[in-house]
Amino acid sequence: MTTDVEQPASSDFVLQGVPASNGIAIGKGYIYRRPKPVVNEEKIDSSNITKHVELFDDARRVIEMELQRLKRKEIDEISLQVIDAQVEMVNDPDLEQQVKSLIEDRRHSVDYAIKQVFDSYLEMLSKSQNKITQERMIDLEDVRDRLIQVATNYSIELDIEPGSIVIAEDISPREVIQFSDYNISALVTDHGGQTSHASILARSMGIPSVVGTKRTCQLVEASSQLIVDGNEGLVIVDPDECQLEEYKEKIKNQQVEEQKLRRIISEPSETKDGVPFNLCANIEFVEELPNLQKYGAHGVGLLRTESLFIHKEHFEDQSMQTAFYSEILEKTGSDPVTIRLFDAGGDKFFSMNSDENNPFLGWRGVRMLLDERDLLREQLKAILTVAGRNPGRVKILVPMISIMDEVLEVKDEIASIQEELEEEGIPVDHEIQVGIMVEVPSVAIKAEAFAKEVDFFSVGTNDLTQYTLAVDRGNELISELYQEVHPSVMELIHDCVVAAKQEDIDIAVCGEIASYPKAAVCLMGMGITELSMSPVAIPKVKTLLKKYSTKQMEEIAEEVLSSITAAEVNSILSNL
User: Most exposed among 218, 239, 291, 503, judged by the fewest C-beta atoms under 10 Å?
Assistant: First the structure.
């Protein structure tokens, strides 16, 4: 029974939420309420200004070290990006300038200054109608509270028993990782959504999670026995014996399925009729490399480099970038590595960029790089230097291409830098492959022309879908229109496959759709034999691809391409 009516915690009842991370868990509840630090609003004496500035600097260093330690845990690429985003917040120069200005000019205490800066930004975000933007507010609140706690020497003690199910109004990504140290079995939150950073982390760490239950903190007492069904979004409070036995059986079946997935990793990547395919990894950090072997990835299909751009104070010269790329190549053996150039714009967390009303259609990717030519040349020189030491292994991927001129300009820069390297006596790989992201419809429509100028296509279905259907996927008012398997999107992908085959170049898909097993079957049926995804998704995709022959997959692709609506496509794929 689903209920919105308050009941005594002693009676058994079911709360309905949103499934945020698959899996089932049984355990005792632990109610977590993040303490809100009390700040000192009194003005400080001028003699204490230096002390409070130093407290702020020390707090930032401590929190960055905490976050860097979290990054060394065994988590996937998305989780690492989440943590890196928090590191960026802590190190944001505008945050530093604003907090120190309040301390030095207005004689606010360090804790009050931190609160003032963060609260003004949170107020701006609260006015947004974008659900994803609102979900990110918890990340900012957590960084704010943690900075204040460290700056004021406020400590928190947790008493979580192993196997507990943590219940909270909301949870930050840092807290999810912190709770994992206690070997919790599940998470339940009254607020939040599937796209919140906490939900993303729970999925990556395999922690069953249900969000948006609204009143669990009010209705459930500490130590109540709970069943959390992350597959269906259910929380069963004080279950009876029949419910316990039913869910224990479901957990056993779940464990059997997980064992099957682990076995599939060691098997050859080939279809039922013996045709090979490659499943590669999308990564951004060195710390993710162990996941390639763990999940059976064949090389790196997409190495994101935005973290280098974001933290250019740590990678301020070409030698530091070269060291990063070299380490990636060294730790991937002889496997290929596709390095995507910086795909970033100029927005910062604490400096709202009002120059662009629609950044998705604005100054990003190759557009930004061609304007910031020194940044482009610095990155290309680092990549080409490493490629020369590892001939045949490195590919360069150019993001956000929309017109041919951009391709030609980047190719000219690559030729120019290779010539410079040779003059310096540095070996170069003259056969290095240069490819483009197909994420703008103008490229897919003229795929044949672009295929004559590049060595490979990598289809970024996330943006291709967004631009093709004119749907901001972060806008909840029209989120149902964001359909990655829409026939129009699939038709554009197929056009790229035809052009790639005609010009004898490679084509891969690195967008989110590649990690959906049933959609992967359709992509293989179109003729795409390389898919790149989060490493954790590889076993399930591989399992389904091995069940079908190429002829069967071609027939499925033909049905999909003859469809008119996304509902028809979903109906075809649902039969797999």
Answer: 218
